[in-house]
Amino acid sequence: MLTKGLTYEELITSFKKGLRNGNWRKLRFLDKALYRAAIGYAKCGGSIVNGKLVEKLLELAARLKETKGMRIFKRGFEKAVEMLNKGEEKGVFAWAPSLRYWLRDPDYVFWLGKNFSFIKKPLLKKESKKKP
Fold first, then answer.
1. pLDDT tens, 64-103?
2. Would you say 31 and 60 are in contact if contact means Cβ atoms under 8 Å apart?
3. Are 64 and 57 in contact (CB under 8 A)?
4. I need a labelling partner for 124 at 20 to 30 A (CA). Which of 5, 31, 56, 109 fits?
């Protein structure tokens, strides 16, 4: 549980940042309602100290502050971890040892996130049995 309270200023700065970068419109209706209610309460009452509520509001504030670069880097990091694990299993690093260093390079991780963001895993089709 968190003991830090959220103030009106902290909530409103995250709200403004979310409006500027377009993340406010991506939130669900109930999340927006909770955030607006918290802003109203903090404006009148001081700060919000309830642990679960602060935790949820901090999560929403993080989503509001998120940038395109952060999302790209997160996707690239997930892809790099996946490639690192598969490379260890299949022995790829025996014949391509520099790949291990590339997967730890932030610029390469960003490149992975940018270039492999639209590649989806192939769907497995069930083989249908033909009727005679």
1. 999 989 989 999 999 999 888 888 888 888 888 888 888 8
2. yes
3. no
4. 109
